[in-house]
Amino acid sequence: MLYIVIGFLWVSMLIYVLMGGADFGAGILELFTSENNRSKIRTTTYNAMGPIWEANHMWLIIAVVILFVGFPGIYTTVSVYMHIPLVIMLMGIIARGTAFTFRHYDAVKDNMQQLYNRIYVYSSFITPLFLGVIAGSAVSRQIDTDASTFASAYILGWFNWFSFSVGFFTVAICGFLAAVYLIGDVKDLTDKKRYIRKAKMMNGAMAFWIIMIFWFSYKGDIPLFNWLFGNFISVATTVTGLLSLILLWIAIYRNNIKRMRFYAGFMTMMLLIAVTYSHYPNIILLKNGAHLSLFGTKGPDKTINSLGIALLAGSLFIVPSLVYLIYSTPKKTDREVQ
Questions:
Q1: How far apart are the first and last CA of the chain?
Q2: Where are the transmembrane segments (predicted)?
């Protein structure tokens, strides 16, 4: 049952990156769009993600609940030593959801719409940034559980170049996923070309921040290169991920919507496997050389068994309901949205 719980944890994070990441990415694309074209991207974004935007954070909630119930040692360490970036990330989620709602459903159309738009785009950037910072900090070996000062305990563990490089890469991949998904949601050739350009821009940003991640991992003595190329599974998933990226761009230029979306999701999955496999089941690597493992920090067997049963039973309701929500909600026309 432990492996079932771990599987749900990993899958929930993958789906959150794919769906929630593209959700954030829509706001990121809007942030890097000229004022003349922002109204178009708002219409397309709302049309595409309107049916499921509230459901995306369900996957993050599931992951948090799994850690809280099943792996309290990991949950406690993250919530204590990463509480500052966690609070910023959660504030970003709240602010973004609030702004998204008010800018579409506010009965009074006035200058407040500009404020809602700003809150939406900046929180769309900040939230995945700090999500990536937390993820990078977990493996950066900078979290100091033996710290004697506030700065070393609660700031230096995440306030470093490696963690922020992972954060900016997370922002870039969210924007890339959104651009790829939205290519298939527009019919006008000019709009398609616009999203293709944005996909290129975000792809370039991904490449840049990957280089920065490797550089700062080298400077910080983080064995990232060995994690990605030190065993057959990691090498295979890394190479497969790169091949998926090539096939994705071929699908884009052939306007094959289903394939481009499949390759985008598959590439992200391969990337996630590549960066987590080598140090599995160790989730958090500490500054003192210790680590927190999914096996070493698990709760009592009765708790794990109950959690596994609850997750299996819940998935029987959640997954069909989510599929029904996506396919039963009619797409709004541009006129209806505006």
A1: 49
A2: 6-32, 53-74, 80-99, 119-139, 159-181, 201-218, 224-250, 262-284, 304-327
Work out the angle at residue 10's Cα, subtended by the Cα atoms of residues 82 and 91, and round it to the nearest 5 degrees.
Answer: 35
What range defines the domain where residue 151 resides?
Answer: 2-219+291-337
Cis amide leading into 281 (omega within 30): yes
What's the whole-model pTM score?
A: 0.91
Residue 255 lies in a domain: no
Residue 48 included in any domain? yes
What is the count of structural domains for the chain? 1
**Domain contains 119:** yes
Domain membership of residue 227 (yes or no) is: no
Please answer whether residues 118 and 49 qualify as being in contact, where contact means their C-beta atoms are separated by less than 8 angstroms. no
